[in-house]
């Protein structure tokens, strides 16, 4: 019997363009494939290869003769390609329509309303790279005291402000105001606090970013675990993505290293309300997306994958007989893609490991990332989720 699932999302680690990628301006995107082709023949991720990674992404890589895990890839059925869309679908929610986006900036009336509520004017209000906009408007922000508003191709209302001159708590406060205001036709998936430090010419974003997300529109697998007396340990930005819903304990990891360490701690502690209750450890590793994908930093992205790959054996060693490890992603963010610097509409990898499951099984190209939620519900003997197709019977005899 499997009593615990360890679900790790490698944020933005896509596995090749989806059939509808052209609609999103992402034709030919392939996060993993292009990293391997750019890094050369000596680049390898041997531990993920043993779980089936090479079988997912390319026929040219030398695959292990015997695999220790099972593998596949998953499509996103929801419209969109952002963090909320991907994580919600992994947890069992398929959206009917996309969250609103603002490629030309937010309506003037909306900004005026926001300015009235926070008692000050704002700067920006256009789509931009987070690092570039603070270069452009950071000095003016310090002098004026006005927060910087910007967005991207995703459904986000982002507010940048200097930690020293504006204040971190004040930034969080106005983000909460924006979150309450952005409803109805303007229900963006996330309001994001983007703090930075430094002086003109040397501004740097900090790790004190905070997401203010919409609550999930339906029950997720997190809710089911909690309602059935189990524990849901959220690591990284998982709590923010699900607005705290369905979570029994959270750990805020500011980077991949902290996220991996906290995942190891959670697995070692084996947190459960009762000995036979079910447990979900749900981790997001954000550096792939935030630091390397959007900044199109191929080498750092590749090194980050190596770091996770080296971490895997120690995580697997801590796993118990009744544990199941699922490694996947929420969308792509191809660091070699030059058409834009946003997320890319891609398949996501699916790697499964457990001492009680079959290895070497090709789970195929799954129609939806919600298959993960349905499989967890099936394994835990819960009522079926609304969406997804379980692959439990392919893994367990």
Keywords:
alpha/beta, 14 strands, globular, six-stranded mixed sheet, eight-stranded mixed sheet, 397 residues
Protein architecture, described:
With 397 residues, the protein is α/β, with parallel strands linked by helices. The protein has helices at 31-39, 46-50, 53-57, 83-90, 108-118, 130-144, 168-181, 221-227, 238-241, 256-269, 287-293, 298-318, 371-379, 392-395, and strands at 4-10, 70-74, 123-127, 148-151, 156-162, 190-197, 204-205, 210-213, 231-235, 249-251, 279-285, 323-328, 348-353, 362-366. It is globular and about 65 Å long. The termini are close together.
Give the topology, please:
Blueprint: E1 4-10, H1 31-39, H2 46-50, H3 53-57, E2 70-74, H4 83-90, H5 108-118, E3 123-127, H6 130-144, E4 148-151, E5 156-162, H7 168-181, E6 190-197, E7 204-205, E8 210-213, H8 221-227, E9 231-235, H9 238-241, E10 249-251, H10 256-269, E11 279-285, H11 287-293, H12 298-318, E12 323-328, E13 348-353, E14 362-366, H13 371-379, H14 392-395
Parallel strand pairs: 1-11, 1-12, 2-14, 3-4, 5-6, 9-10, 9-11
Antiparallel strand pairs: 2-13, 4-5, 6-7, 6-8, 12-13
Main beta sheet: 8 strands, mixed
Cα radius of gyration in angstroms:
21 Å
Our estimate of the beta-strand percent is: 15-25%
In total, the number of strands is 14
Distance between the termini: 11 Å
Coarse structural class: alpha/beta
Strand sequence of the main sheet, in spatial order? 10-9-11-1-12-13-2-14
Q: If helices are DSSP runs of H or I spanning 4 or more residues, what is the number of helices?
A: 14
Mean pLDDT over all positions = 95
- Outline the low-pLDDT stretches: none
The shape is globular
Q: Could you state the order of secondary-structure elements as H and E?
A: EHHHEHHEHEEHEEEHEHEHEHHEEEHH
Helical amount: 25-40%
